Amino acid sequence: MSVIKVKPTMPGRRQMSVSSFEELTTSKAHKPLLKSKKRSSGRNSSGKITIRHRGGGAKRHYRMVDFKRTDHQGVEARVETIEYDPNRNAYIIKVVYTNGDRRYHLAPAGINVDDKIVTGEKVKVRTGNRLHIENIPVGFAIYNIELKPGRGGQIVRSAGASAKLISLETKMAQIQLPSGEVRFVPKNAFASIGTVSNASHANIKWGKAGRSRWRGKRPSVRGKVMNPIDHPHGGGEAANSIGMKHPKTPWGLPALGVKTRKRKSKTNIFRIRDRKGRNLIKTS
To answer: pTM of the full predicted structure?
Structure first.
């Protein structure tokens, strides 16, 4: 995929770039796999805003993507189309199984129309195939990884992301996530071979505020330009510093660089190394 820089016909387009969408093969979605999607716009049941900076945006249908891919184990599927999904930054593929069933899956990088993919506990290690982690050679790139067998892929699903299988020596497999964190994953969990498509999504420059509004994002205002009653950083005449040792959230809690992970989180036992390279538990 490539990113196209548009002509600077107006100030908002001077730094704007868009995706070329050259990998896509159709612009028409498969209706039986569409579902209506209602926006909450960050509001609760009383209509009050509980999550800031959300609202508006273009209407969209939800594509029912199959993250498990275990219903047709051992059945070969052919890639029919590569499509755009407005609900995620990665592309999706529509596959048709030999029994005639059609499904949406996450598209890996480098896959083409008419390619064959298959899911099974022990199948050929090839881009797009899905199999148990214990049957994947060490060093391979994987995505759409299960954290609990049978639950479906939960991590490594965004555009251009991939994890690396680094060890199968212990009772559980060890994988390195895109953030650099290393963690344990059950060996009988499923994972797909390859890297998620649309890696150039991170290079897009949105250019103008309107494009963010199309995506359902409302404006974000700096705390230091607010009044003291609205934000701890607010107040003062003209341009001042925040006037405190550490930044704070609008509700007075520490912000920017403060650890937010719960110290007693149940999943801490599965973390081997954090994203900064610090060892958390002994692997031996």
So the answer is: 0.90
